[in-house]
Structure formats: structure tokens, C-alpha cells
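Sequence in, structure out. Go.
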Amino acid sequence: MTKRVAFVTGGNGGIGSAICRELASRGHQVVAGYFPPEKESAEAWQKQMHDQGFSIALAAVDVSSFTDCERAVGEVTEEFGSVDILVNCAGITRDGTLKKMPEENWSAVMATNLDSAFNMTRHVINGMLDRGWGRIVNIASVNGQRGQFGQANYSAAKAGMHGFTMAVALETAAKGITVNTVSPGYIATAMTEAMPENVLESIVNSVPMRRMGKPEEIADAVAWLSSEANAYTTGANIPVNGGLFTSH
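Output:
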């Protein structure tokens, strides 16, 4: 297996952690991007990963900033080599109905969840094109496919992510690069486990498989899309949602 440099934004989150572990277990040099003000918790997370046997580097990056993404990619490239695998996993929510949504909640979600895909991809794509190999995976959401009450900003950003995927896939398909989206459903993370029991029960009952997904199930999909084996799937949106939303 060829060792690759993999940059995972939001790498210290619930889903991001599983992706980092899986890519590291496949022999890649993994760099987890984290929001700069969260340095202390990111370093604690890194130690936890190390204690579990995973050597994962950290990179502070504000994914909503084009120039900060340029800096972070430059520093990672200088230390580890060019980025071969990019997983755009960073994301936030600022939920609320449209009639009450302040402009800053729309802008913050768009900047972190959608602009970030451009900001990061723009700074790795030329190197991938030059080398004739690259894997880009954008983590969207089932709610970008079906919409969700109180998430006009989040649903729009996640739907936009896949539009971005499809266009970049077409631009790079002849150059040994694949660009795909993974759209998770409801996944069991620390965030969802903190929800009230009745809310969790309602969510589980809405899923045909009658359970939450595991972060590792998202990581498995990402790892395959990021692999040498995936040389012919590009521009796809892979749903990992337990049947919560299906489409042709």
C-alpha cells in the first residue's frame, strides 16, 4: 500500500476522529485540522489518539478563511509532503427557522460548511493535478439531500457541497483524481449522545434500520473512496444513513 498524506479538516470531531483513525490504520500520514482557538482540546485529543496507537499530526486552520487554509496547507506540505487525500469534514450548526434566522447564523454556517470546501480544495488541487493522483471526499449530510426543518442554512450548505463535488469531479476526472461526497445520516457521537432521551428515541424510530450510525461506518466509506482501489468512482454522493433517505 502506498503511504499518502491525508489532511482531514474537523479531524478531532466525532466523525473526523473515526476517519483519522481509519486512514492512519491504513498506513497514511494523517493530519487533523482543528479550529485554532481549540488548541488545548486538540492536543488532548492527539494524546488520546496516540494512547490508542495512532500517530496523527495536528494543523490549526480556520477553514472559513481562504488565506488561513493556504497557510495551513503550505505548512503541512513543508513538513510531510504534498497532500494526496483531502477530507473536508469541518462543520457547524446554527439551527433556527428561516423567519427568525439572523444573517450571521446563515453566513457562519455557509463559511464553515461550504466555503471551506473551496478554501481547502483550491490549495491542494494543483499539486494533485501535477502528480496525476488525488482523492477528495466532502462530508455532507442526509439533510443536504432531503432538507430539514430549522436548518435552511445547514441544508443549503451541505447540498452545495455536493454541487461542488460534481463540478470538481468533472474538471479532474482525466487527471487521476476522484472527488466524491459522503452524506451521513444520524450518527452516534458525543454530540448526539448528549441529546435528551426522548429526542434520541424519536430519531432512532425515524430510521428504517432502527439505530444510529457509527462513526466508523462513515470512516469505512471515506477510506474506500480515498484508496487506490477507487479509481473509477467520482462525482458520486454516497449515502450512509440507514435508509432514512433513499433516491434513484
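Check: Residues 17 and 78 are 24 Å apart (CA to CA). The chain has one domain: 5-239.
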